[in-house]
Queue: 2 jobs
Job 1
Amino acid sequence: MSGSQHAQVFAPAPDGGEEPRNLVGLSRAELAAEIAALGEPAFRAKQLWHWIYARGATDFAAMTSLGKAFRARLAQGYRVARPETAVAQESRDGTRKWLLRLDDGQEVECVHIPEAERGTLCVSSQVGCTLTCRFCHTGTQRLVRNLSAAEILGQVMLARDHFQEWPSPSEDRQLTNIVMMGMGEPLYNYDNIAKALKIVMDHEGLAISRRRITLSTAGVVPMMQRCGEELGVNLAVSLHAVSDEVRDRIVPLNRKYPLKELLAACRAYPGVHNARRITFEYVMLKGVNDSPAEAREMIRLLKDIPAKVNLIPFNPWPGAPFECSSPEAVEAFARILLAGGLAAPVRRPRGQDIMAACGQLKSASERLKKTEREAAKAAGCRSPA
Ligand code: SAH
């Protein structure tokens, strides 16, 4: 499979599509224009913004600071909608996964991971993914499209609904951090991600700081600079190999943007300094990328980049063509990195019992014919070209 095949452009997602129009996902300027077109003064748009993003209101009737007639008019032409929850699951370890059904019937997953000091929402950016990383279940899903800004935001708002964090409490919040690490490649859907994250970061709304948002990319080099400049979020890079030879095989995007270019883009990532390091994700695959020599090579490759490494034990899925490295190999790898000055925590798998761990997301009820399902599975198992 050639690298260029993965960069195809997809039809934009419907953003709520038919009437009534979903107000979620409109930028401040778009909302203002919409309200101005109704002949209402500009402060109404601000009030509406507050109801939608600070108070989480979905029913216009509850927006009591707006005049009755205006509320009725809004209710006729608009809605404030979330994606529908098809299935909600909770893991033994408290991790939650929501399977969301979108307006066109497509499905995506979103995961909440509670920890002692924070709660992280893992947000999807696409239905499926075009990257076909060999170890990732999402890459075996055939249907792919970009999520709209409303669908990306909807995941965050739905989690706030679930935890009843409207308005967001100042203490003991369940939703404090966001990682763009769910299904899909966020930098292949940059415009919608940027639009959604700007709304997420808006101080008069969801108000989640860019310091608490991390975007993970497999290395779409041409978009990295812009992401850093415009959004200023933390960057995570799915490294997974320290030679082009291995990376070409397990992360096919590497054939398009090889390691040298990727690492140059990391060095140039705006705002990178020691307090705000780039996270390099590294999935531990037995006999593929887990040797001590590879750990030493990683130290060399990353020596002039403010970096930390997340070692991720490979999470298996049905038919996966890899095994996880042994705990001893992971431990030895981490120790070498640490001795070389690289912080290398081993990420504990979360939510494995509900298939919510890294790389396991794939719409469980993906509606494909059996033959299609088998073909997709075969594609995932095929030995790398
Ligand atoms: N496309 C983006 C974000 C989605 S993947 C990216 O590639 O970064 C989120 C993280 O999970 C990535 O580091 C990905 O490589 C990792 N991952 C995928 N499959 C995995 C698996 N089976 N086990 C462990 N981690 C996996």
Job 2
Amino acid sequence: MKKFSIVVAGGGSTFTPGIVLMLLENLDKFPIRQIKFYDNDAQRQEVIAKACDIIIKEKAPDINFIYTTDPETAFSDIDFVMAHIRVGKYAMREKDEKIPLRHGVLGQETCGPGGIAYGMRSIGGVIELVDFMEKYSPNAWMLNYSNPAAIVAEATRRLRPNSKILNICDMPIGIELRMAEMLGLKSRKEMVVRYFGLNHFGWWTDIRDKQGNDLMPALREKVAKVGYNVEIEGENTEASWNDTFTKAKDVFAVDPTTMPNTYLKYYLFPDYVVKHSNPNHTRANEVMEGREKFVFGECRAIAEKGTAKDSKLHVDDHASYIVDLARAIAYNTKERMLLIVENDGAISNFDPTAMVEIPCIVGSNGPEKIVQGKIPQFQKGLMEQQVSVEKLTVEAWIEGSYQKLWQAITLSRTVPSASVAKAILDDLIEANKDFWPVLK
Ligand code: NAD
Ligand code: G6P
Ligand code: MN
């Protein structure tokens, strides 16, 4: 059986060790001969890499492992790029979240002005990875989950329309795990779903078991009461995420014929979100004090001890969707998965050039879209506004246009007026001057 060579771009990510452990658990399904890490921050990456080197030597010594900041070394002789970079790192995420809050607007990693700011940083970084891949391994595929995925996907559609890049998000997977738990199913893969939307902006319209039985009625009863807030074995969900899972019941109430993505809370209840935010301590602070501290601490401990034997780092089971996706391409499995793809008629009454999140059948030649038909007025209206935010952001980046970025922020449902949008934009420009193109 062929063994694959992969490069993890954003080797220094907090998610890298969990993903490596997940890959090592799945070697029977997806054999690997080589893992490379690539990052543009050598020091950050080295901490994670030294620990992963030990983990790989202990669990799968046959795998060749290297880490580098040199693109040619990283991207030569590879089959897959697994990309999760965060341009500007947590220091800039913190600003994305705190600057809008200073103006009374919610601050979020991928939604509202914070997500737009992050998008303006990510586009160049992700396009650079695509170009490295095409230069050094033209037959490779990029599996991209770098955020903000909606804006990044639109940018790759515009700028690299023929590149082999698949954009995917784990939020629907995380929610489906909770649905499966509520329904008493052993696996979320027992559900066959219909879904439509934009990334972090979508709805399930149909959920059935493999026999075709409708699971929506039972789910509705539960979600109306607790949202998606259920105990998941082995998962210690943080308070802020539990709040998001609970709030899903209010999002659900706005249209009980569908099941909402949790991220809709930011668009439908922005006042609630602002009221429950601490402008001096946002999610970026929680992540730096929590996940980042834990992962980097554990990695340093592994390097010091020279063994990962009693490490508390755990397999990122969530991330096994990455193996499902790589296997679909490598083995033509025709797995049905939600991907972010160009609409092109799949949602028949929506912009054909929009990057939408819908079920696709994935095989060796990429995704085949499953038509979701016409969508209702309520969702269509919301999506038309949001997709315009995303398209204007990408146009602003390409053209260096202040005007278009102002329009993008003004159009976001999270922002009350053009004057507030302008004030936020001017602060964001100042904060992002090392990352954004110059806007005129
Ligand atoms: P992190 O800051 O810990 O890691 C990101 C790494 O990317 C850092 O080591 C940084 O140095 C590196 N990097 C930044 N710019 C780069 C560039 N231009 N080239 C190469 N490397 C670069 O962040 P994290 O919290 O671990 O998240 C990583 C990414 O994964 C983020 O974009 C996050 O939003 C995304 N994510 C996406 C999903 C999804 O559902 N799509 C799920 C989880 C995380
Ligand atoms: C979900 C989303 C990701 C997002 C992450 C944020 O998994 O799908 O797109 O990056 O949540 O998690 P964090 O713990 O960093 O706030
Ligand atoms: Mn996501």
